[in-house]
Design brief:
Oligomer: single chain
Order of helices and strands: EHEHEHEHEHEEHHHEEEHHH
Largest sheet: 5 strands, parallel
Radius of gyration: 50 Å
Shape: rod-shaped
CATH class of the largest domain: Alpha Beta
CATH architecture of the largest domain: 3-Layer(aba) Sandwich
Low-confidence stretches: 341-349, 354-368
Mean pLDDT: 78
Strand content: 15-25%
Length: about 375
Amino acid sequence: MAVLLRVLVVEDSEDDGLLLVEARRDGGFEPAARRVETAGEMRTALDAQAWDLVIADYNLPKFSAPAALRLLQEGGLDLPFIVVTGQVGEETAAAMMKAGAHDYLMKGHLARLAPAVRRELAEARQRGEHRRAERALLESEWKYRQLVENLREGIWVIDQNACTTFVNLSMAEMLGYTAAEMEGRHLLSFVRPEATDLCKHYLSRRESGIAERYEFEFLRKDGVPIHASIETSPILSPAGAYQGAVASVVDITERRRAELALKLLEREILRVSEAEQRRIGRELHDGLGQALTGIAFMVHALAARLAQAGSPDAPEAAAITHLVTQATDLAQSLARGLSPVGIRANDLVSALEDLDRPGAPSLLHPRV
């Protein structure tokens, strides 16, 4: 089955044009041809439709193959351009090929036209596929760069020598630089001097192919330290050789400040709470405890007098003395629990209580 071929023929001779068409038909093509003789006609033809091939005579009364080739190139069209003409010198043919023509044939050797057309069409397809692949790659790279550049996280890429090869806008702004200022610089130049050894340790782990997450401090361009959370992944060759690393970096300076402030607040709350405990403990010991001790002495004395007088209320007074003693012991126990150390310093009453053996009558809390 013949292959449809859209051919633009730059030729002033209608007979020669028909001859070229027949030569392509004999080569297994079904040409759909249009003949033009001037630059204006060629522009109109190129604007009117797409073409597969341009065949041009070298010399025309009002046009020429070199001029047709320039017109084609100016339009950004990559079409097979074959010059078919009469007698011309080798220098002329070489100049046309150097200018961008794909082949040069003599009109007396049109048997070579069909193979030349097949070859140039195949090469044109390859060039087209290569351009499409390049455009797809460039588009993919552009989309990837746009995605990376617009991430809120900083992206930092280093090579096998720990030199910066790429940072996105967020990473550069995080450290107060431009991307151009950071690229090419060693990672250690952004680290506090006292943290150099730790940074070298992390770098050695990356070279072993370990992906990890950690926190680290960097220095901004203005010398202000920032705390960052870093997640790194090694970049390996197909053979597994270390070629560098890529890191996702998040500035957590404010979070760390908030955590530190919270810890300080917790410590202050604990300090105030402990101080309040000690105060309440002292109040129980020095206030309520002492008052209950005084009451215990008074009730004990009253119970003794009632017992000597043979009063029927003596047993009830003795019971009250016992209850007051229990309340005193409870108050002292609570005081010790709330302020186990503070209430005992230079405290004669507490010192005397320490002499009281378990189960024995208290020196201060007589039992009836």
